[in-house]
Design goal:
Blueprint: E1 4-5, H1 18-25, H2 31-39, E2 60-61, E3 79-83, E4 87-92, H3 109-117, E5 141-147, H4 150-161, E6 166-174, E7 181-185, E8 188-190, E9 198-200, E10 208-216, E11 222-229, H5 236-243, H6 263-266, E12 273-281, E13 288-292, H7 297-306
Parallel strand pairs: 5-12
Antiparallel strand pairs: 1-2, 3-4, 4-5, 6-11, 6-12, 7-10, 8-9, 10-11, 12-13
Helix pairs in contact: 1-2
C-alpha cells in the first residue's frame, strides 16, 4: 500500500471538510470514494469525513491495493502449433492483446487460453497473466510459448531471463541498412518525454540485436529483414531500427513515412513485425524444440508492392 501525504492546509482552506480537502489534493479519487476511505481508517490522522481541517495540518492517505480482476474465459479461436501437458506454442494474430489491461479487459489471448485450458492455468504467472511467460506487442504477430503448470512456467522464465531462448523476427523496414548485415547495440530505457516510448539512453538496459537483409526493393526504399535477439527489451527491434534511421513500416510510435512511399505502404495499419521462430528447451523432457511460422497475409502483400519498384 502506497502512502500519499497532503500538503499543509492553506489559510483559505481552513474549515473545509476533510473529504473535500482530500479531493482537492488527490483529484484521481472521487469525493465519495474518499469519504468511504476515511471511514475505513485509510487516513491516519482522522476518521470522520466531516472533520473541519485546520491551517497547517497535513494528512496521510493509505488506500488499499487494488485487487487484480480475474479474467473471464472466452471462446476465441487459437492458432496452436504444439501442445502437451506442460506448454502450448501458438501463433498470435496481429491486433490481439496478450493479457487484460486498461482498455482491454476482454478479447485477449489470456481470455482465449482460459477457455481452452479450463482451470489448469489458474494462478500460474499471476491472476491477470495466467500461463504467460513472455509477450509481444499488440500489433506484432507471431509465436508465443505459454506454460500450463508452475514448473514449466518457472523453467521457461529462467530461459528467458538467461537469454537462452532463440527468437527470430522478420520485418519490413524503410530504406537500406548499411551494412546489410550486422549487429546493433544500444541500452534501452523508457523515454522521459513520452512514457509510451522507449529509447536508447545511457542508463537503459543493455540490448543487442543481430540483423540481416533478406530482400531489398529495386529503389532501396523497402527492406525485408530478419532479426535475432540476444536480449529481450521492450520494443527492442523497433527502437534499434529507429536509431539507425530505418524504422519499421507501419510503426506509428517510432516511424516516419518517406514522402515518396506508395500509399499502401504509408497507410499500413500496424508495425510490419512478425515473431517468425521460437526455440527453447522443453521444461520436462529437456529436448530442444524449434517452431517457425511464416509471415501473415497482410505482410506478404508488402512483397507485391516492393517488387514493383
Amino acid at each position: 500500500m502506497e502512502k500519499r501525504k497532503t500538503p499543509p492546509v492553506l489559510p483559505e482552506q481552513k474549515g473545509v471538510r476533510l473529504d473535500k480537502f482530500l479531493s482537492l489534493c488527490f483529484p484521481d479519487f472521487s469525493r465519495n470514494r474518499l469519504e468511504n476511505l476515511i471511514k475505513d481508517g485509510a487516513v491516519e490522522e482522522e476518521s470522520s469525513p466531516s472533520f473541519k481541517v485546520k491551517e497547517g495540518m497535513t494528512f496521510t492517505l493509505t488506500p488499499p491495493d487494488l485487487e487484480e480482476a480475474k479474467p473471464i474465459a472466452e471462446d476465441i479461436p487459437l492458432d496452436i502449433l504444439y501442445e502437451d501437458e506442460d506448454l502450448i506454442v501458438l501463433n498470435k494474430e496481429a491486433e490481439q492483446v496478450v493479457h487484460p489491461g486498461a482498455g482491454n479487459p476482454q478479447g485477449t489471448l489470456v481470455n482465449a487460453l482460459l477457455y481452452h485450458c479450463g482451470d489448469s492455468l489458474s494462478g500460474i504467472g499471476g491472476v491477470k497473466r495466467p500461463g504467460i511467460v513472455h509477450r509481444i506487442d499488440k500489433e506484432t504477430s507471431g509465436l508465443l510459448v505459454v506454460a500450463k503448470n508452475d514448473t514449466a512456467h518457472h523453467r521457461l522464465a529462467k530461459q528467458f531471463e538467461k537469454h537462452t531462448i532463440e527468437r527470430t523476427y522478420q520485418a519490413f523496414c524503410w530504406g537500406r541498412m548499411n551494412p546489410m548485415e550486422g549487429t546493433i547495440e544500444g541500452a534501452i530505457g523508457r523515454s522521459t518525454q513520452n512514457r509510451q516510448k522507449m529509447g536508447i539512453i545511457p542508463e537503459g538496459k543493455h540490448a543487442i540485436t543481430h540483423y540481416k537483409t533478406l530482400e531489398l526493393s529495386g529503389n532501396s526504399l523497402v527492406s525485408f529483414m530478419e532479426f535475432k535477439l540476444e536480449t529481450g527489451r521492450t520494443h527492442q527491434i523497433r527502437v534499434h531500427m529507429k536509431s539507425k534511421g530505418h524504422p519499421l513500416i507501419g510503426d506509428k510510435l517510432y516511424g516516419k513515412n518517406p514522402q515518396n512511399a506508395p500509399a499502401f505502404l504509408r497507410h499500413f495499419p500496424r508495425q510490419a513485425l512478425h515473431a517468425f521462430s521460437l526455440g527453447f528447451i522443453h521444461p520436462r523432457t529437456k529436448e530442444f524444440l524449434l517452431f517457425k511460422r511464416e509471415i501473415p497475409e497482410d505482410m506478404r502483400a508488402i512483397f507485391n508492392e516492393m517488387r514493383n519498384f
